[in-house]
Every structure is written in C-alpha cells, then in structure tokens.
Amino acid sequence: MKIRRIDFEEKGLNAEHQALALPPLEYEVTHAGEHPILRMLSYLVVAVLIGLVLYLIHRLFFGGNEETGWALIEATLHDPLFWSAVGVGLLAQVIDGALGMAYGITASSFLLAVGAPPAMASGATHLAEVFTTGISGVSHLKLGNVNKRLFFSLLAPGIAGALLGTYVLSAIDGKVLKPFISIYLLVMGVYVFSKAFRRVKAQREIQTKKIIPLALFGGLMDTTGGGGWGPIVTTSLVGAGHDPKTTIGSVNFAEFFLTVVVAASFFSILDHTVWILVAGLALGGLVAAPCAAYVTRHLKVKTLLMLVGSLISLVSFFNLYRAWFV
User: Fold this and answer.
1) Every domain of the chain and the residues it spans
2) Which of 173, 258, 303, 321 is most buried, judged by most C-beta within 10 A?
3) In angstroms, how far apart are the furthest CA atoms of the chain?
C-alpha cells in the first residue's frame, strides 16, 4: 500500500488544483529537487555546461589551429551562412520562448531552406539546444516542476530513439533523406496548427508502458527531423490529461540529456562548418528573449499556434517543392 505524502503548502501549483477541484500534489512532485538522484543530475547538468564552454574556448584559442581564434571569429562574421543562422536562431527562439516548444522544428525547417544538409541542420540545432535545454531543465527542477517517475520513464527510451535517429542520418545520403524530413516537418507544422483547436482531457495517472514507446518515437523523430521532442512528447502527454507544469518540466529536463547524447554523437560525422551554424543560432537566440516576451504579451496562445504551424508548414512545403521540382 502506498502512503501518499500530500503537500498542503499554499502554492500557486496547488491553488490551481484547488480551483479545479483536484487533490493537492504529492510532496515528491512539488519538491522534486530534494530527490538525491535528481539533485545529483542537476549538478551534472551544470558541470556539463561549464565543461562545454571551457572546451569551446580551448578549441578556439588554444587548439593548435593555424589561424588564431580572433581570425576565425572574423572569418565567421563575414560568412553569409552565419548571418542566415542568426536570423533562424532569432525566429526559432522567439517561437520557443512564446510557446515553450518548436525550437528544433523551426530551426531545422529554415536551415534546410537555406541549403544545410539534414545531418548538419539536426546537428547544429541540437548543439545549440544544449545550453537552452540545460538551463531550462535545472530551472524546472528547482521550481518543483519535475515528476521523477515521469522523468525516468522518458530518459532511457528517449536517448535510445535519439541515437537510432543519429545512425539513420549518418547511414543515408542527405539528398535522399531531405524530402522525407521535409514531409515530417510539414506534418509537424500541421500538428502544431491543430493544437489550437484541441481540448485537454481529464488528468490521468502516469502509465509507464505507454510513455516508453512515446519517448522512443519522440527521440527518433527529434533527431532525424532536427526537432519534435516537445511537440510530440509534451503535447501528447498534456493532451492525455497529465498535469501541464510537471509534464513540461519533466520533458524539458529529460531533453537536456537527450540533446547532449545527440550532440556528442554528431561530433564524429560533422565538419567544422557546423560551428558556424551553432554560433549563429546561439547569437540569434541571445537577443530573442525580449521579442518572445513581446509576442507572448500581445498574441493569444491559440493565435500563436496557428501562425507557427502555418509558418513551419509553408517552409517545409517550399523545401519539398525545391527538392522535387527544382
């Protein structure tokens, strides 16, 4: 018999439950950051982010390159691909900041449109997402938005699906794969659009047997398509009635580990050009937060879903037209 430890603290989380005549959340959910394994994982996230920054600085200025770090920076600033990535990163981060999802599918759709191969688009997107997903995941954990049971149900199958997707991208010619990825992104655009007209059902208990195949599929499609973990996994779970806050927090925290594994696996199959795209995506994302806040204040979520879904669908349709008829 399970002894439920109920959290009766006066918090916004439980206030919403009270307004909907739902029982208060369990203490282990609202205080997930106190769980020793999750706390250790949060320290690991911070260590990985610091290590990655130090590694990039070392490669840039002390890596034994023929060119100095400043010369590489100057060459990057004169590369049109870099400025294209800046624009893509700005748009993708505005959408992600306002909706809480769709960074990957937006960035991948536009990177494919500017001529990046599928593996390059997916690799650059996941490398840029390492920092955003890491900071987001730890923040959700500290705010008590991570359900440990849901998190661990998502983690292993999500990583397995992502690694399978990496193998698919490395084993199949990009020109052959590009139309199929564009079709997937087109479907995802329609899916995001359709979310504006759906209603959330009643809350249900977490069913591990159903979450594992969802996470596996989400990880696979996220890597092969360059994005989709949030739109597939988060919206499916929330649409099935799971608590939105703990679902978003758990999915985001799991996404960091998935993203790190994918980014590491892409190191062996991508050339130095990927860092130009990553730098552009990161720079565009840095200046996007105020824009996202403005969009969120002035547009309803339903309107934003329709705009983003239409935009992703149109860009993907353009990519399909160019791949098949040009």
Assistant:
1) 80-325
2) 258
3) 66
